[in-house]
Amino acid sequence: MDNNSVEKLKTIREGSAEILTAEHVFYNPVQEFNRDLSICVLSTFSQLYHREKKATVQKSWKGDPPVEEVELVAGQKCEKGLRILEALSATGLRSIRYANEVPGVKEIIANDLSKSAVESIQQNVKLNKLEHIIIPSFNDAMTLMYTSTHPDKQFTVIDLDPYGHPTRFLDGAVQSVANGGMLLITATDMAVLAGNSPEACYVKYGSVPLKTKACHEMALRILLRCIESTATRYGRYLVPLLSISADFYIRVFVRIFTSQYECKKSSSKQSMVFQCTGCESFTLQPLGILKPNPSEQNPNQIKFATPTGPFVSSRCTHCNHQHHMGGPIWSGPLYDVDFLGQLLKTVEMNSFKKLTTIRRIYGTLSVIREELHDVPLYYTLDRLCGTLKLEVVSMMKFRSALLYAGYRVSYSHACKTSIKTNAPVSVIWDILRCWARTHPVKKERLIEGTPLNAILAKESTIEYNLNELHPDANPPSRKESLSRFPENPAAHWGPGTRATLMVSDNKMFKSVQNQNKRRKGRGSEKKRDLSESTEGLKSPDRKQSKTDEANETVN
Predict the structure, then answer these.
(1) Is residue 63 predicted with pLDDT exceeding 70?
(2) What is the CATH number of domain 359-479?
(3) Between vectors from CA 516 to CA 512 and to CA 522, what angle results, nearest 5°?
(4) What is the mean pLDDT of residues 384-411?
(5) Alpha carbons 323 and 315: distance in angstroms, whole number
(6) I need a surface site. Which of 123, 288, 314, 507 has the fewest CB within 10 A?
(7) Position 275 confidence tier, pLDDT thresholds 50, 70, 90
(8) CB neighbours of 71 closer than 8 A, spacing ≥ 6?
(9) What's the whole-number average pLDDT of the chain?
(10) Per-residue model confidence (pLDDT) at position 1
(11) What is the pLDDT of residue 29?
(12) What pLDDT is stored for residue 518 in this prediction?
């Protein structure tokens, strides 16, 4: 590479890495939180992986097992460590940071299909002096994974962070990851997953999303269900370690295991979702159920059965409206409690406090730890009160009412007004009926046939406590003022584009340029059509047409 070409490169520093990148290579600074979190998760997984490997050796050894302590040091090659594949590497920044900051790594394959990107990876690996750990690869990601399905060639960790949906890579990923290995998967097509294009979501993920306030958690559950259904074809199943919705994307960290028996439980972890078109209350119906079937030989034996249904009637029992049906979605836990505890200990270590986004990572993980991991989806307090046209009740009062009634409640990390609870929706409406007595709805809003009229026409069966705050109503993450739901740090915060301008000084230029471009186009077409249609009109009509044109512009 000559001096003139070097001068055109831009230097980017992030974490322990320093890279040179040209404008034609994709780099997204928005994803620094994603990369920092992935480093924390991989560091925790590396410790777990080596402990499990040591325990397996000790268990299989007949006599006293040889004591062989493996030193896990970041930046040093570990011969018995993790084999990581970053299938879509671009600049190689993520791989370089993994090599520098994750302990216990054997090798990292930094792959890309773009020749210029691979040249950039080679240059940056050499710049950071990591040739002993990182191997640049110029290959199609799917071909690379399909040729690595043999147990001797499988990867311990596969990171998939594509632009858009990751589903086309899942088939190869679930086959080429080792038993007990981990997949790190990102999806950025949130408009599709959140219900704007249900037909497109079904094509890509095999599920129908619903337009609901819990759309971000539903997006996570659609992705997890897609991974699970892909894995079970090969006698494998997943265990979610962590699932997170952040900024404009979702990210899941899952372990893949092999077991034909566990695969049979998959249907009991997937559910269809029925959502009322009026009050938006939802009901989940599992695709399969597990029944205890003990025997003398196996007291813990279970029986796989098909549920009877549907779980809802043709009309909502609360507001008499019909239902939309979505799914199937993953209805199992979104994270592993033990792993999350270990992850938080990792984040608290001094070596990770230098990460730029560590405060946000700790706050987000703290909220996730407080979430009810066994309760799918959530409601939002503002939407519940909006449905009944009520003054919004205090979050602490509403949580207190649920806690005093004997139910569990938590936030969801995906929404700051979320109500995640094991209470049936009938209890939620009863609490709001009690609130409506002291904060009544205007009579003119009580229109026959509306959800609010149908719900408020019924009396509350129990008097709920909305006056006294429960000791556990305020969660620890809120008491400690942690960074729980941070605001977007910049205007036009989003995934950016594939364009070269993503690595220039004005990195969001093209994103801004394309804002509302279709709307602008429609407006210009309307003006042109109006001007053509007014030609030849008499003056009164022409005057009216100008007024119409002005109204069109305002609208």
Answers:
(1) no
(2) 3.30.56.70
(3) 145
(4) 96
(5) 7
(6) 314
(7) very high
(8) 78
(9) 87
(10) 46
(11) 77
(12) 55
**CA geometry: angle 228, 232, 238, nearest 5 deg:** 45
Q: Using alpha carbons, select from 185, 129, 181, 177 the residue that is nearest to residue 159.
A: 185
Helix then strand then coil, in percent of the chain rounded to 5, is 40, 20, 40
Secondary structure of 209-229 as H, E, C letters: CCCCCCHHHHHHHHHHHHHHH
Q: Collapsing DSSP states into helix, strand and coil, what is residue 449?
A: coil
Q: Identify any residues that bridge with 173 across adjacent strands, giving them in sequence order.
A: none
Contact residues for 145 (Cβ-Cβ < 8 A; gap 6+): 85, 87, 158, 169, 172, 173, 175, 176
Alpha-carbon Rg for the chain in angstroms = 27
From the centroid of its chain, how far is CA 145? 24
Cα distance between residue 452 and residue 55, in whole Å: 59
Check pLDDT > 70 for residue 23. Answer: no
Task: Report pLDDT digits (tens) over 478-521.
Answer: 999 999 887 776 666 666 655 333 444 444 444 444 555 555 55
User: Reduced to 3 states, what is the DSSP secondary structure of residue 159?
Assistant: strand
Instruction: Please give the C-alpha separations between residue 156 and each of 45, 94, 141, 377, in angstroms, as whole numbers.
Output: 10, 17, 16, 31
Q: Which residues contact 185 (CB under 8 A, 6 or more apart)?
A: 160, 161, 166, 170, 173, 223, 227, 251, 252, 254
The residues near 114 (Cβ < 8 Å, ≥ 6 apart) are: 25, 90
**Residue type for position 135:** I
* Amino acid letter for position 285: Q
Domain range annotation of the chain: 359-479, 523-555
**Sheet with 270-276, edge to edge strand ranges:** 282-286, 270-276, 323-330
pLDDT recorded at residue 491:
66
Instruction: Identify residue 14 by its one-letter amino acid code.
Output: E
- Which residue, among 98, 95, 105, has the nearest Cα to 46 in the 3D structure? 105
